[in-house]
Write a structure and sequence with these properties.
The structure is a single chain. By secondary structure, the protein is α/β, with parallel strands linked by helices. The strands form two sheets. Strands 4-3-2-1-5-6-7 form a seven-stranded parallel β-sheet, with helices on both faces. Helix 3 links the parallel strand 3 and strand 4. Helix 6 packs parallel to helix 11, helix 10 crosses helix 15 and helix 14 packs antiparallel against helix 15. It is globular and about 55 Å long.
Length: 397
């Protein structure tokens, strides 16, 4: 017989968000249990997590790691699966209440779709799912009446600001951005930054892909698109505000001019726990915000000349259809190429722009349209990178 705990499937349990989710689960053993854990290729950490949390089942996407897990965990009553399709299968289990999607990139889309169709509560930390397929996801959410709770700190902040507001009109969403590690660098300096420099984020502890996206402000562009789909606000009424202290996590301006903001220390366990415990707030052992010790909070407009990825996201959303999916696919491909030192930091927006310029958008796409657009955009981005044809895209230089 199932207990009264919330049984959580953590997709991407070995990543930054996944590990912090398990911290939250461990802090509240009477409220939560880790029912399913999945990982891409980090079999060693997945095995250690399985030994500690004793989930019903685990999945490793890298099928070559299956034998290692089977051998290491042979004395435990844990089901072990391998392959990306198995991740989709386990979210449908009747013993799963909440699916926390912390997979990186486009890989989060299919499991999210399957979890929605299975009627699970979705705690979404994977922004690419809504960026690439927001219209499809929203249609499925409406069809299956599935709760979707945001885990990103900014979208959780907006969600919290809207609590109790009912149908009160949102005049504007104020989406805050830390500005990343290169906020004060000039355009020429940005041409020469290294992946190692870009991975040193001043405020947040994140995985490599999202940290690079944050440094280029591509991540904030994704969040603009995500906010549109989550809260039904046109992109024209979503304003990005650079806030280096990362204390104000976002804000909402209402029709009467009042602004509500959510503040707190930059710690992802806060929005993770809120998504898992919603609508309740539970105790959490994290550093507390002291406004008197914080001192000044500063805000400024973003510079899209130095950070063109943000402007490209607005452009993609205004075009609509499959263009945000094309943006995401090109951005993922360029991000990896930069981390592998095959292109420079400022080449990333050049690659993305070149792919967008050479791609047609399909209006009101189906899931098949999204999958096709993703594959085509990745192929174009790879070809553009290999042939250096992105060098003809200058973005104001």
């Amino acid at each position: 017989m199932k207990d009264d705990k919330k049984h959580i499937a953590v997709l991407g349990s070995t990543g930054s968000i996944g590990r912090q989710t398990l911290d939250v689960i461990a802090a509240h053993p009477d409220e939560f249990t880790a029912e399913v854990l999945t990982a891409g290729s980090n079999a060693e950490l997945l095995a250690a997590q399985a030994e500690k949390f004793r989930p019903d089942s685990i999945v490793i996407a890298d099928e070559s790691k299956y034998d290692y897990l089977k051998s290491r965990l042979e004395n435990l009553d844990i089901k072990i699966y391998a392959g990306s399709e198995a991740i989709c299968d386990v979210v449908e289990g009747s013993n799963v209440d909440v699916v926390l999607v912390a997979l990186v990139g486009f890989a989060g889309l299919k499991p999210t779709v399957r979890a929605i169709e299975a009627g699970k509560v979705i705690a979404l930390a994977n922004k690419e799912t809504l960026v690439a397929a927001g219209e499809v996801i929203n249609s499925l959410i409406a069809q299956y009446k599935t709760p979707l709770l945001p885990v990103d700190s900014e979208h959780s902040a907006i969600f919290q600001c809207l609590a109790g507001e009912g149908s009160n009109k949102i005049e504007k969403i104020l989406l805050t951005a830390s500005g990343g590690p290169f906020l004060s660098l000039g355009r020429e300096e940005l041409e020469h930054v290294t992946p190692a420099q870009a991975l040193r984020h001043p405020s947040w502890r994140m995985g490599d892909k999202i940290t690079i996206d944050s440094a280029s402000m591509m991540n904030k562009g994704f969040e603009v698109i995500e906010a549109h789909w989550l809260f039904g606000v046109p992109v024209e009424r979503i304003e990005v505000v650079v806030h280096p202290q990362s204390i104000v996590h976002s804000a909402v301006q209402f029709a009467d001019g009042a602004v509500k903001a959510q503040l707190g220390m930059p710690d992802m366990r806060i929005p993770i726990q809120y998504a898992l415990s919603y609508p309740a707030r539970m105790e959490l052992d994290v550093p507390r915000l002291s406004l008197s010790q914080t001192g000044s909070l500063t805000f400024m407009a973003p510079d899209v000349e130095r950070f063109p990825c943000l402007g490209l996201a607005f452009e993609a959303m205004k075009t609509g259809g499959t263009m945000p999916c094309i943006l995401n696919a090109a951005a993922e491909t360029a991000n990896l190429a930069f981390r592998e030192e095959r292109i420079g930091f400022m080449d990333m927006p050049r690659v993305i722009s070149a792919v967008m310029q050479s791609s047609a958008s399909v209006a009101h796409p189906t899931l098949d349209d999204i999958l096709a657009a993703d594959a085509e955009a990745r192929a174009k981005a790879a070809e553009i990178i290999d042939n250096n044809t992105y060098l003809s895209i200058n973005h104001g230089k």
